[in-house]
Amino acid sequence: MLKVAPHSAPIEDVIRAMHVNLGVGLTEKEAREKILRFGENSIKRSTRFRMLKIVFAQLASPLVFILLIAGGATIFLEEYLDSIVISVALLVNVVVGTFQEGRASKVFEALANSQEQTATLLRDRNKVVIPAKEVVPGDIVYLEGGKAVPADLRLIEAENLSINESALTGEWIATPKEITESPVKAPINEQKNMAWKGTIVSEGFGSGIVVATGLYTQIGQIASDTEEIREQSTPLQKSVSHLARFLMIAIGVATISILVLGLSRGEPLSEMILIAIAVAVAAMPTGLPAAVTVVLAVAMESILKKGGLVKNLLAAETLGSTTVILTDKTGTLTEGKMSLAGLYTARSITAHDNSIDHTDNRELLTAAILVSDAFFEKKEEGVIVHGRPIEKAIVSAGLEAGISQIDLFAHGYERKDFLQFESKRRFSASLNTYKEERRLFFSGSPELLLDLSDHCYVAGASRKLDNDTREEFLSVQRAESAQGHRFTAVAYRLERSDRVPDDVRSNAYPKGLVFLGLLSFSDQIRPDVSKQIQDAKNAGMRVVMVTGDHPETAYSIASEVGIAKEGDTPITGRDVEDMEDDELFDAVHSNTIFSRMLPKQKLRLARVLRSRGDVVSMTGDGVNDAPALVSADIGIAVGSGTDVAKEAADLIILKNTFSTITAAIKEGRRAVDNLRKIVAYLLSTSFSEIIVIGGALAVGAPLPLLPSQILWANLIEEGLMTFPFAFEPAQRDVMTRPPNKKVHGKSASLVLTSEIRKIMIIVTAITGVILLGLFFWMRSIGTPIEEIRTVMFVALSLDSIFFALSFKNLSEPLWKINILNNKWLFGALSVSIALLMIAITFPPLKTLLSLSTLTGFEVMLLIGLGLTNLVTIEVAKHLVRKN
């Protein structure tokens, strides 16, 4: 895109080569021409052979691999009927799996697209925000702390600018940036005047000229070289893969043992291979791969619809295991839409007038607009203000009062320099011309700026700030904070230079300020948050507010939403600094409000709780919240937060509401519950078959079931019944049972809990013994083997139907379960019964499966057997619940 090396060329040469006008930026016409020429600023995944890859992925499954071996063996032995059935089983498994993988891929694409990044840049002399994919070479892009770099930039401005380039270089420590030229052969991690696409601004602000977009960027070239972006499996998928590999090994050992045992007894090799195939097919839950994919797709899609982007499914289940939620206030408990509620200067407090009409109040608002980093742009739908909530409220109030930041900058209040707000500094600063002076305006913590001020503004002049006036400001803040209002303060001092002084930049607190006044803001509590917090408490979690707000504000909101209980006293960040770890742990379990908390204090709080066994979820939105989000078991970033916070988080709540957290908890528990039902259902039916076949072989009896019959029962009957479990509604106790603290254990335990294992053992043992007893009884009365196999085939098929009804809910008895609340299960039940009827009545299928006609007595016997097994499962569930 650029003939000169941008990092080594003087900035003037880069400006000239890119045809950039620094004061205007690109026009919309130029931008449209360039996007047609260079394409979108995105790195798209290749879709070539995607369907073929998904098909091969299905064939690579350990469970499908066993079917492939079985199919090859039956062809070798010229058992073509079994080969046909196995081939049909393979085809159905691959088709279902491919369909569901495609469905899941669409969900995951929606997850990625839901977090579309934006870029702030200069177009036609105006500062605008556009989708990052529309950025083109020659654009002038503004950078600020917490935002992602949208394209490769040659920096033209860098104020305390550091960029985390770990996505490109692997180095986590942020790189300080400057605008001077770098050596020609400098590697990218030493090109200090460049900002790379996909990296994240850690602090400071700056601007740069776009020199490369899309595949022409450094990260785009890497993507082109590797050509393929591999999708990662979620921990839940890994858990099931572990289970599949375990089953494969166990089945391999069992089949080889049976083969060796039979050959040692002098049995024919061909017959023993068929028996080994039967055992392998009986034990293998062929419907498991497709079922897991369905569970994942349904759960991720459901959470996304509720406004949550979960980076991996296990994060939602870990949320369900949370014992403490550390939640911020603004944007999570409240709507995050700040509006200016009042202006308070020394003179207006005395006059009891907090409106914009008061002369001093108007001066206060003007100063607040000058120091704000928010900005607005005019669009067809109206004026849109961009920035942090409080800054947006300030600029919006100014526009309503006829005070525009752009007009101020252009008419005597030009901004010379700017220092961005940082949590550890607790203020931002703007150096502006002010009539014949230069004033350095400060906006930030009221307590801090009051402490740093020795004068206050009164009627266009400054006067000594006495204790009475200081107390009046504090009194106003306390009174309004008790009503849930939030405050910021504005102060200033005179300067002579054109830059913010180094002592201010180095976080040394400036002295001798003139205190202009206080601005109060209101933020409405979300209407559903009280219920959601109560739901979290009912689920066994403790909810604690951790905020940077004033103690009175925090207490007011916490009380209203149900976090605070009577007698709670807000603990401040200063209190936390004076506490030992044991004291802090005790404090968080006896108090529910932490106010005036700095990010490093939030980090310590999370670490102390985790070190003592709590499972911690924490919300955050700022750059400096990232370490705390990483330190927590679950980091939760709000959708309006910084890219740094989102990168560090496990769950992103797109609608900035606490209800998304509880919805993700519920959906995560539901997904794992449903997967447990599927695994319990499949393994119980499969292991029952193992007992029947193994018991018959142990006494030298013929096979109770043929491989083709086992495949039909496993795939057609069981397979149809497992799929609907993914759509099972959440159980009634899903948000009332205590959290499971075992979140750091082996992944397999996520599925095979002790309760599931107990139910499987009881059901498998009793059902297997009943079926084996039926087999031996029918042999003892001289029933032909073809007829016995038909009865055993129908018995297993009926078991799979009755099992599905009981496994629909593992914590409640069948008579308390609403059987009709899952239309997919009801439909699968109907189809499964219909297919069973076809199998035992349709002559060609009867021949294929080697089935005979059932007598009336056998039909009644089978119905009774099915009901007996249904009672068996209910007894097993009752025993497990009782224990």
From TrEMBL:
<dbReference type="InterPro" id="IPR023214">
    <property type="entry name" value="HAD_sf"/>
</dbReference>
<dbReference type="GO" id="GO:0005524">
    <property type="term" value="F:ATP binding"/>
</dbReference>
<dbReference type="Pfam" id="PF00689">
    <property type="entry name" value="Cation_ATPase_C"/>
</dbReference>
<dbReference type="GO" id="GO:0036376">
    <property type="term" value="P:sodium ion export across plasma membrane"/>
</dbReference>
<feature type="transmembrane region" description="Helical">
    <location>
        <begin position="848"/>
        <end position="873"/>
    </location>
</feature>
<dbReference type="Pfam" id="PF00690">
    <property type="entry name" value="Cation_ATPase_N"/>
</dbReference>
<dbReference type="InterPro" id="IPR036412">
    <property type="entry name" value="HAD-like_sf"/>
</dbReference>
<dbReference type="GO" id="GO:0016887">
    <property type="term" value="F:ATP hydrolysis activity"/>
</dbReference>
<dbReference type="Pfam" id="PF00122">
    <property type="entry name" value="E1-E2_ATPase"/>
</dbReference>
<dbReference type="InterPro" id="IPR008250">
    <property type="entry name" value="ATPase_P-typ_transduc_dom_A_sf"/>
</dbReference>
<keyword id="KW-0812">Transmembrane</keyword>
<dbReference type="InterPro" id="IPR059000">
    <property type="entry name" value="ATPase_P-type_domA"/>
</dbReference>
<feature type="transmembrane region" description="Helical">
    <location>
        <begin position="759"/>
        <end position="778"/>
    </location>
</feature>
<feature type="transmembrane region" description="Helical">
    <location>
        <begin position="790"/>
        <end position="811"/>
    </location>
</feature>
<keyword id="KW-0472">Membrane</keyword>
<dbReference type="GO" id="GO:0005886">
    <property type="term" value="C:plasma membrane"/>
</dbReference>
<dbReference type="InterPro" id="IPR004014">
    <property type="entry name" value="ATPase_P-typ_cation-transptr_N"/>
</dbReference>
<feature type="transmembrane region" description="Helical">
    <location>
        <begin position="678"/>
        <end position="703"/>
    </location>
</feature>
<dbReference type="GO" id="GO:0006883">
    <property type="term" value="P:intracellular sodium ion homeostasis"/>
</dbReference>
<dbReference type="Pfam" id="PF13246">
    <property type="entry name" value="Cation_ATPase"/>
</dbReference>
<dbReference type="InterPro" id="IPR050510">
    <property type="entry name" value="Cation_transp_ATPase_P-type"/>
</dbReference>
<feature type="transmembrane region" description="Helical">
    <location>
        <begin position="83"/>
        <end position="99"/>
    </location>
</feature>
<feature type="domain" description="Cation-transporting P-type ATPase N-terminal">
    <location>
        <begin position="5"/>
        <end position="79"/>
    </location>
</feature>
<feature type="transmembrane region" description="Helical">
    <location>
        <begin position="273"/>
        <end position="299"/>
    </location>
</feature>
<comment type="similarity">
    <text>Belongs to the cation transport ATPase (P-type) (TC 3.A.3) family. Type IIA subfamily.</text>
</comment>
<feature type="transmembrane region" description="Helical">
    <location>
        <begin position="709"/>
        <end position="727"/>
    </location>
</feature>
<dbReference type="InterPro" id="IPR006068">
    <property type="entry name" value="ATPase_P-typ_cation-transptr_C"/>
</dbReference>
<dbReference type="InterPro" id="IPR023298">
    <property type="entry name" value="ATPase_P-typ_TM_dom_sf"/>
</dbReference>
<feature type="transmembrane region" description="Helical">
    <location>
        <begin position="54"/>
        <end position="77"/>
    </location>
</feature>
<dbReference type="GO" id="GO:1902600">
    <property type="term" value="P:proton transmembrane transport"/>
</dbReference>
<keyword id="KW-1278">Translocase</keyword>
<dbReference type="InterPro" id="IPR001757">
    <property type="entry name" value="P_typ_ATPase"/>
</dbReference>
<dbReference type="InterPro" id="IPR023299">
    <property type="entry name" value="ATPase_P-typ_cyto_dom_N"/>
</dbReference>
<dbReference type="GO" id="GO:0030007">
    <property type="term" value="P:intracellular potassium ion homeostasis"/>
</dbReference>
<dbReference type="Pfam" id="PF08282">
    <property type="entry name" value="Hydrolase_3"/>
</dbReference>
<feature type="transmembrane region" description="Helical">
    <location>
        <begin position="823"/>
        <end position="842"/>
    </location>
</feature>
<dbReference type="InterPro" id="IPR018303">
    <property type="entry name" value="ATPase_P-typ_P_site"/>
</dbReference>
<keyword id="KW-0067">ATP-binding</keyword>
<keyword id="KW-0547">Nucleotide-binding</keyword>
<keyword id="KW-1133">Transmembrane helix</keyword>
<feature type="transmembrane region" description="Helical">
    <location>
        <begin position="243"/>
        <end position="261"/>
    </location>
</feature>
<dbReference type="GO" id="GO:1990573">
    <property type="term" value="P:potassium ion import across plasma membrane"/>
</dbReference>
